[in-house]
Design a protein that fits this description.
The chain is of the alpha/beta class. The chain has 7 helices and 12 strands. It folds into 2 domains: 60 residues, no CATH class; 234 residues, Zn-dependent exopeptidases (Aminopeptidase), CATH 3.40.630.40. It has a 6-stranded mixed beta sheet with strand order 4-1-5-10-6-9, sandwiched between helices. Helix 1 crosses helix 2.
Length: 311
């Protein structure tokens, strides 16, 4: 066999161990020839060689297969039931954790069908800490190059319509490519506040194209006309301390689903569509799926070179 200068000295011993004509894929899958390698090099050197060969293949794959990732964080779960919701008919209602998981499952199906990669923080009735939720989100979006969004899903018995929250942290600065610089865990979201506010606006715009009984205006219909018409899901935007979200390193918003109320302000307002209503939930998840498509389009049309890199 000739000297290995043609293919690089690092591959010469492997070729020698496998013969002049290694089968196709031998360099890509050296474990197929583990016994031959061990006889030629010994176990320690074999482990080093396999690690050397595998590393660049992994790095190249990660850089070339970036996908658009949506993280769905169904709030509460397990022993943490959250609040009681869906009791407008006089019953006891259901735990918030049940509604948030139902929304997550339905939304995941819609997003997957639209080509998104979906990461969920919980798939069943299990306890998940705020830190664990953030870890799941950050790990799932780490290799996206900023092509991501996180939706933290909640439900409430108070208010009307959908409440969209962005972290109340002040806008911070993320310097990409600076070795040794890490975002503080509890305030990591600060570097993404501007983008999270834009994401909230995209969600709000999508809700304007929905239609539910009692929707259409901030105050709903006048007294005596309950259920008389339909309109967009009323939405409000706000800022709040958001455990879990505050530690996420991607554009993130909390979506809180509340009943649709109509009538006069105050205690006399009547619930016409509760959070357990299947049609209401369908309208909401379809609006969120549409918002994610719009968000994806917006990011894809941005030029990373214009104004610097985006987080």
């Amino acid at each position: 066999m000739q000297s290995s200068t043609e293919n690089g000295p690092e591959f010469f011993p492997l070729r020698a161990a496998l013969g002049d004509r290694p089968e196709r894929g031998a360099l890509k899958h050296p474990l197929r020839h583990l016994s031959q390698l061990r006889r030629h090099f010994g176990p320690f050197a074999t482990a080093l060689l396999i690690g050397f060969i595998a590393r660049p293949v992994f790095a190249q794959t990660s850089a070339s297969t970036q996908k658009f990732v949506i993280v769905l964080d169904a709030a509460h779960g397990g022993d943490d039931g959250g609040g009681q919701v869906g009791a407008s008919g006089g019953g006891t209602g259901v735990a918030e954790k049940t509604v948030t998981l139902a929304l997550s499952v339905r939304l995941r199906s819609l997003l997957t069908a639209r080509g998104f990669t979906v990461v969920t923080t919980r798939e069943g009735n299990v306890n998940v800490t705020s830190d664990a939720r953030a870890q799941t989100a950050n790990h799932g979006t780490a290799a996206t190059g900023g092509n991501a969004a996180c939706l933290s899903l909640h439900a409430s018995a108070s208010g009307s319509g959908v409440h969209i929250f962005v972290s109340s942290l002040a806008q911070g600065v993320l310097t990409q490519g600076a070795p040794g610089r890490f975002l503080p865990w509890k305030t990591a979201q600060s570097a993404y506040i501007d983008r999270s506010l834009r994401l909230a606006g995209t969600v709000n715009s999508a809700l304007e194209h929905t239609s539910v009984i009692g929707g259409g205006s901030a105050n709903g219909a006048e007294s005596g006309t309950v259920g008389a018409g339909a309109g967009p899901i009323p939405a409000t935007l706000g800022r709040a301390t958001l455990p879990g979200v505050d530690s996420m390193t991607c554009p993130s918003v909390a979506i809180e689903m509340a009943p649709i109320r109509v009538g006069d302000r105050g205690a006399n307002r009547k619930v016409v569509t509760d959070v357990t209503d299947s049609g209401y939930q369908t309208q909401l998840v379809e609006a969120l799926a549409a918002a994610m498509l719009e968000w994806k389009t917006d990011l894809e049309t941005e030029s990373p070179r214009a104004g610097g890199s985006r987080p």
